């Protein structure tokens, strides 16, 4: 006779199996779907025309004004300004995103005497996205329309950004947001000097930023951010260090140097525009900073007493395009004397060829004394004017004395001094087809199952889900097999009972069709 304890044992086993599977699902899923660590935004660009009609108004026949770029900002396309060197944070779990950019634009117009009635500067734009809403902030300096009152406000909430329909969660980088519709806020209207009312549609905003794990550059072996680094400290006594310092200062030795120059914004636009349909190519170590070209590895000497400096730099740039455009500048050099600087280059421009041709002159207060500060002689965006040879170098497109792009010069006279970092534009965004519906587009690289997160967290969620699914399938097959096996036994026992009456139909302890642990009566 079957034991009465047997059904409970089997029922308990089945209940235990279900409990184990439930525990697996409950324990494994939270572990594999554990929240990703916040990431740091480091490097990237923001492209925004602010308001194209405002640009046209400023430079048109009414305001008769102009605009100029500040802090390494550049132009891109027909009417957009490019801001650079994004810094901020991103939370993959919540999608919260903050990115601040460098650079600015200064608009002036309606000149009256020696001043302008229209005087507006927009700089350091910052984009924040959280909870399904987005805002663009910026530093604003403006002269109020009518009264002339100047107001300077940091990080004004300038524009509301439409981010509806964009899933900001789960990105691992880069993050790109394209053509975000923007409208002027009430605070922005006030900071805009009263030229527009709240709710006015502004130009759409596009941005692309890189992400790194943890806090800035923590994933790099040397702990640096990759932009600049101090040279190793030499083990010397205080007396030796002072002696070397005095010796170097007397000798006027330059440890390192770089000169930044964008030639001229309108010339770059001509080269890459619809007329020349050309390009520029950098070589020999020259670097592209967006709105400027950097010529690095400066070597030479300076004399603080005589207020002179001479340095030669690496790098070359070549402009090519239609209508015979082919100009190459190389062997760039800078000389300073009497408080004025001159930028030279070897020019190969087809009709004009000259070694060490003086292209532009520039002046700045820092050039008058050439006094190092913290081991660095730095001149930032000094106004530059074209020379006679410079005019020839560019095919007489511009007259001598024409304002060219400003010159920035950094000269390290101490081996510990750091040169300013080049504008960081981040990774080049992947090309995308133009949106036909006018809706904003987003691109945020999702975590993949076969990649490893640099912060050490696992991407094993899809793999674990597959393993759990396999366990469930195996359990289902085992359950069906057991059910059929016991059904076969029950049928066999019924057949034996009708022949000899030895068995009971219910003696096997519960019909499988009634489910685990269901009494059969």
Which key phrases capture this entry?
521 residues; alpha+beta; 12-stranded antiparallel sheet; 22% helix; signal; TAT_signal; transmembrane helix
Structure description:
- With 521 residues, the chain is of the alpha+beta class.
- It folds into three domains: 6-33 and 460-514; 39-219 and 427-439, no CATH class; 247-412, no CATH class.
- Helix content is 22%, strand content 39%.
- The protein has eight helices and 24 strands.
- It has helices at residues 6-32, 52-59, 186-191, 238-251, 265-272, 366-369, 388-393, 461-500, and strands at 39-48, 66-70, 74-76, 80-90, 97-102, 104-112, 115-130, 133-143, 150-161, 171-184, 201-213, 256-261, 279-283, 287-288, 293-295, 299-303, 308-312, 316-321, 325-337, 340-348, 353-363, 376-386, 403-412, 441-446.
- Strands 12, 13, 14, 15, 16, 17, 18, 19, 20, 21, 22 and 23 form a twelve-stranded antiparallel beta sheet that branches.
- Helix 1 runs antiparallel to helix 8.
- It is globular, with a radius of gyration of 35 Å.
- The chain starts with 5 loop residues before the first helix and ends in a 21-residue tail after the last helix.
- The model is unreliable at 1-6, 27-33, 216-241, 431-441, 446-471 and 493-521 (pLDDT under 50).
């Amino acid at each position: 006779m079957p034991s009465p304890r047997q059904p409970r044992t089997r029922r308990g086993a089945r209940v235990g199996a279900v409990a184990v599977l439930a525990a697996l699902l409950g324990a494994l899923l939270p572990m594999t779907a554990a929240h990703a660590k916040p990431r740091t935004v480091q490097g990237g660009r923001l492209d925004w025309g602010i308001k194209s009609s405002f640009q046209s108004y400023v430079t048109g026949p009414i305001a008769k004004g102009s605009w100029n770029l500040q802090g390494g900002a550049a132009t891109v396309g027909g009417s957009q300004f490019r801001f650079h060197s994004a810094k901020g944070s991103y939370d993959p779990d919540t999608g919260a995103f903050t990115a601040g950019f460098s650079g600015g634009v200064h608009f002036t117009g309606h000149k009256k005497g020696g001043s302008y009635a229209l005087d507006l500067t927009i700089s350091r734009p910052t984009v924040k996205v959280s909870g399904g809403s987005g805002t663009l902030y910026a530093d604003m300096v403006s002269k109020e329309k009518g009264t002339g009152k100047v107001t300077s406000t940091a990080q004004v909430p300038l524009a509301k950004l439409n981010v509806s329909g964009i899933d900001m969660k789960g990105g691992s980088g880069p993050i790109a947001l394209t053509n975000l519709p923007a409208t002027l806020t009430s605070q922005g209207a006030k900071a805009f000097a009263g030229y527009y009312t709240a709710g006015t549609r502004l130009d759409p905003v596009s941005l692309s930023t890189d992400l790194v794990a943890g806090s800035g550059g923590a994933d790099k072996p040397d702990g640096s951010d990759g932009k600049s680094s101090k040279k190793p400290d030499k083990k010397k006594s205080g007396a030796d260090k002072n002696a070397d310092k005095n010796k170097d200062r007397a000798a006027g030795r330059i440890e390192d140097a770089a000169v930044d120059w964008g030639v001229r914004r309108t010339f770059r636009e001509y080269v890459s525009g619809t007329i020349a349909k050309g390009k520029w190519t950098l070589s020999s170590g020259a670097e592209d900073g967006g709105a400027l070209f950097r010529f690095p590895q400066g070597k030479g000497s300076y004399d603080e007493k005589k207020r002179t400096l001479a340095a030669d730099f690496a790098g070359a740039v070549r402009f090519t395009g239609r209508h015979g455009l082919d100009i190459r500048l190389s062997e760039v050099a800078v000389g300073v004397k009497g408080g004025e600087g001159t930028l030279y280059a070897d020019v190969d421009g087809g009709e004009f060829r000259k070694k060490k041709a003086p292209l532009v002159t520039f002046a700045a207060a820092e050039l008058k004394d050439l006094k190092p500060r913290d081991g660095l002689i730095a001149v930032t965006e000094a106004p530059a004017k074209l020379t006679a040879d410079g005019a020839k170098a560019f095919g007489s497109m511009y007259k001598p004395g024409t304002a060219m792009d400003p010159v920035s010069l950094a000269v390290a006279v101490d081996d510990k001094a750091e040169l300013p970092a080049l504008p960081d534009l981040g990774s080049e965004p992947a090309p995308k087809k133009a949106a036909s519906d006018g809706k904003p587009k987003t691109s945020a690289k999702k975590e993949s199952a076969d990649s490893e997160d640099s912060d050490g967290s696992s991407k094993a969620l899809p793999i674990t889900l597959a393993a759990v699914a396999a366990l469930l399938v195996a359990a289902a097959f085992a359950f069906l097999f057991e059910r059929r096996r016991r059904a076969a036994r029950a049928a066999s026992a019924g057949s034996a009972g009708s022949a000899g009456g030895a068995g009971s139909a219910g003696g096997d302890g519960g019909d499988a069709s009634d489910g685990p642990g269901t009494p059969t009566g």
